[in-house]
Design goal:
The chain has helices spanning about 5-10, 20-30, 110-120, 120-150, 150-160, 180-185, 190-200, 215-225, 230-235; strands spanning about 30-35, 40, 50-55, 60-65, 70-75, 80, 95-100, 105-110, 170-175, 205-210, 210-215. It is an alpha+beta fold and about 240 residues long. It folds into two domains: about 5-145, Sandwich (Jelly Rolls); about 150-235, Winged helix-like DNA-binding domain superfamily/Winged helix DNA-binding domain (Arc Repressor Mutant, subunit A, Orthogonal Bundle), CATH 1.10.10.10. Strands 1-8-3-6 form a four-stranded antiparallel β-sheet. It has a four-stranded antiparallel β-sheet with strand order 2-7-4-5. The longest helix is centred in the middle third of the chain and has 27 residues, at about 120-150. The radius of gyration is 20 Å and the shape is elongated.
Length: about 240
């Protein structure tokens, strides 16, 4: 099954600068994949021949330990592409597992086809490299947070990241399970719940099931400044 129109493909940064002929080449290999919650799109170690765009739902990228513990590296939201780095690594395997958190609709693209197009389109190639560089920068910042910052800081920072600039009041709906968010932040689920309860008691947030109300964003941001560094990490993690 193919996407609705060429315009839909052009809304994806990877294809924005392609000509009509190149768009038609991409469309020949597009697949629409439907997943139910819990289903796998691909697993760690499988041969990586395709990359993806999430249309609907949420997908977690994870690795499992020998003991069965799950570490979530990233949660993919609608409109995001993933596994595109595999384009530059022919005959490689996926370094993570992709599992649907909820019902998902995914567009799947042939890496080899797009790699051939990149040779003809320097603008698209540079766009992809720029995007991958930004993602690498994000991961470096995340490593810094996971190793140097407290669990409380990481959770507050996660909440503040979702607040639009200029807002001093915001409501956040947890669209994915809390244990997935906890894994994403390298926090134990019970610690995650304890921090939420602590912030709620301090009237920095209000918790109502899967909804978080931040009545004073500036106050929460100031509070987070006192929860950074190694000393707090030992108390909270």
């Amino acid at each position: 099954m193919q996407p609705q129109s060429n315009q839909e493909l052009r809304q994806i940064y990877l294809f924005a600068k392609l000509n009509e002929q190149q768009i038609e080449q991409i469309k020949k290999d597009v697949r629409l994949i439907k997943l139910d919650g819990g289903e796998f799109l691909f697993k760690h170690g499988q041969t990586a021949k395709r990359f993806f765009l999430l249309r609907e739902g949420h997908i977690k990228l994870l690795r499992s330990s020998l003991g069965g513990d799950e570490k979530v590296f990233e949660v993919i939201s609608p409109g995001q592409t993933f596994a595109e780095a595999m384009i530059f690594m022919p005959d490689s395997s996926y370094p993570v597992t992709a599992q649907a958190i909820s019902k998902c609709s995914v567009l799947s693209f042939e890496s080899k086809t797009f790699a051939n197009i990149l040779k003809e389109s320097p603008d698209t190639c540079f766009s992809l490299i720029s995007h991958m560089s930004q993602r690498l920068h994000m991961w470096i910042n995340e490593i810094d947070q996971l190793t140097l910052q407290s669990a409380t800081y990481r959770l507050i920072n996660y909440l503040l990241y979702q607040v639009p600039e200029g807002c001093n009041y915001y409501k956040i709906e947890f669209l994915i399970p809390k244990h997935v968010i906890a894994s994403r932040l390298s926090i134990q689920p019970e610690t995650f719940s304890r921090i939420l309860n602590s912030l709620n008691k301090a009237e920095l947030i209000r918790v109502d099931a899967r909804t978080i109300y931040i009545d004073n964003v500036d106050r929460l941001r100031l509070y987070s400044l006192g929860n950074t560094g190694l000393n707090n990490q030992k108390k909270c993690c």
